[in-house]
Amino acid sequence: MNTRQIFPLFSTPLYVNNVGDIAKPDLRYLDYTHLTPSGESFNFLTSVDKNVLERAELASIKQLIMHEINFCAREVYAVSTDVEFYITNSWINIYGRGDQAGAHMHHNSLLSGVLYLQASEAGGQIVFHRDTQSQLPFPPVLDLDVVSHNIYNCKSWGYQPKTNDICIFPSIVSHSVQPNNSDEGRWSLAFNVFVRGKFGAIHQLDLK
C-alpha cells in the first residue's frame, strides 16, 4: 500500500481562467508611451492612462474582471465577504516582435492580474520567479543538480497565455515576460487590486 503524500505547504496560488469570447473595443485610439527604463530589459508600449477600466467602453470588461477577482478571493483565498476587493489601477500593454519585460513586482497592491486581449503561441510566456530569500526546499547558496524540474524545485515557472486568459496572483510575486517571437502584437490589460472594509479580529482595521 502506497502511503506517500506530498503537501504543497505555503504555496503561492496562480489563478488562471479562460473567460471565453468577450466584446473588446478598439484600443488603438489610446495614447501609448514606449517603456524602456535604463539598465532594464523592458521594451514595450504601455498606455498613458493608468485607469483604463474606468472608461465607459470598458465597463463590461471591468465587470468580468471583478467577477474573476471575487471568485479568486472567495473560493481560492476564502476571504470573508466583509472585505471588499477593488481595482486600484489598470492599463494596456502592447508587445511587438522582440518586446519583453524584465523581472518586477507590483508595489502598493495585494493582488495583480492580466487579461490577455490578444496572445499567440509565440507571444512569450509570463514567468514567475521564486523569492531567493526564502527559496525552498534548498537555500539559494546551494545550486543542486536536478534530473527534472517541477513546482517544488524550480526557480521560475512559466505560463503561455492564450487569448481571453486571465491570470491573478499576489502582487509581491516577481514576474517577467519573455520576448514576443510573433509578428502578431500581444495585447494585455493589467490591473492591481487592494482591499477595504473591517478586518482583523484583535487589531481591527477599518479601511475605506
Folded structure, characterized:
Strands 1, 2, 3, 4, 6, 9, 11 and 12 form an eight-stranded antiparallel β-sheet that branches. A four-stranded antiparallel β-sheet has the order 5-10-7-8, with no helix packed on it. The model has no long low-confidence stretch (mean pLDDT 91). It has one helix spanning 59-76, and strands spanning 15-18, 32-35, 44-47, 83-95, 101-104, 111-118, 126-129, 156-159, 165-170, 174-177, 186-199, 205-207. It has one domain: Jelly Rolls (Sandwich). Helices cover 9% and strands 35% of the residues. It has one helix and twelve strands; from the N terminus they run βββαβββββββββ.
Produce a short descriptive summary.
The protein is mostly beta strands and 208 residues long. The chain has one helix at residues 59-76; strands at residues 15-18, 32-35, 44-47, 83-95, 101-104, 111-118, 126-129, 156-159, 165-170, 174-177, 186-199, 205-207.
Secondary structure layout:
Elements: E1 15-18, E2 32-35, E3 44-47, H1 59-76, E4 83-95, E5 101-104, E6 111-118, E7 126-129, E8 156-159, E9 165-170, E10 174-177, E11 186-199, E12 205-207
Antiparallel strand pairs: 1-9, 2-3, 3-4, 4-11, 5-10, 6-9, 6-11, 7-8, 7-10, 11-12
Number of strands: 12
Overall 3D form: globular
Question: What is Rg?
Answer: 19 Å
Q: In sequence order, what are the helices and strands, one letter per element?
A: EEEHEEEEEEEEE
User: What does the largest sheet look like?
Assistant: 8 strands, antiparallel
Instruction: Quote the CATH topology.
Output: Jelly Rolls
What is the correct CATH architecture?
Answer: Sandwich
Structural class: mainly beta
State which percent range the strand residues make up.
Answer: 25-35%
CATH homologous superfamily title? q2cbj1_9rhob like domain
Helix content range of the residues, please?
under 10%
| Average pLDDT for all residues | 91
Low-confidence segments: none
Oligomerization state: single chain
Number of helices: 1
